[in-house]
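The methods section describes the discrete structure representation at length, but only in general terms. Since the whole study asks how a given chain folds, the encoding of that fold should be made plain. An entry of this sort, consisting of the sequence and the corresponding backbone structure tokens, reads as follows:

. . .
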Amino acid sequence: MKKVLSFGEIIWDIYAEEKCIGGAPLNFAAHLAQLGVKSSLLTAVGADEMGERAKQELGERGVEGIFSEAAGKYSTGYCLVTLDDSGKPNYELMQDVAYDHIACSTEQITKLTERNYDAFYFGTLAQRAAESRNTLLHILETIAFGEIFCDVNVRRPFCSLSTMKTCFEHATILKISREELPYIFETLLPNEGYEGIPEIDMRAICRHFPKIRFLVLTLDSDGGAVYDAAKDRYYFQPALKVNVVSTVGAGDSFSAAFLAAYLQGKTPAECLQAAIKLSAYVVSHREAVPQ
């Protein structure tokens, strides 16, 4: 069985009448577990009711939680969600919460190294605070992984030049979305013209960041694409037509399905097809990680 270690946040979305657990790394890890991958999540929660519920949720979803105990004095991550008059949600992410203080002892690093994970996953939000970012950098510099998968999620003001460089300079498989492309060129490639044509833009990114083997691009209702840098091959897969109920977690399922298929030896085109299929299933459900 393939093994993947994910790193990052657990966030509770708090609405007027309910709480829903989430966070890209958690959703990603949970989808991997359902796809038959041995999935672990290195994270941090507080010594509070939300933290206890988060641990239970991970167990129920088949994800091994590896917790940074020193972060217990902070609140478990949460986000206040309000709806405007048109029903559009507004998100207020709380700062200085547990996932901003993910730490790893020398003993934990040694244990993680001995597990020989096939892949490592991380994103951008957990890099917003120095302690978690430094832990992430230490892991990237210390532990050897077969693949490093990064899901770029541009959330201003929590995304910086250094954050973006960490993603693009370390990932062997990088996932981005179409709406993030202008920001990527503005931030990382200011002297490289943004064309607005996926194949051309993806090829330009990989020219500047040679460690990226596969650049994965989500295209919303149009589908998705992947660029194989080594073979200079571009693949496109149209979206499946489904009744969209909620897009929450769709990108995380896309990432998980792509990586799971890749670890099983599938071709880039087959990995993309798997990602399109699972994300279509997810958007047809209310939950971010439906069974």
Observations:
- The CA atoms of residues 68 and 156 lie 26 Å apart.
- The mean pLDDT is 94.
- DSSP finds nine helices and 13 strands in the chain.
- The two ends are 20 Å apart (CA to CA).
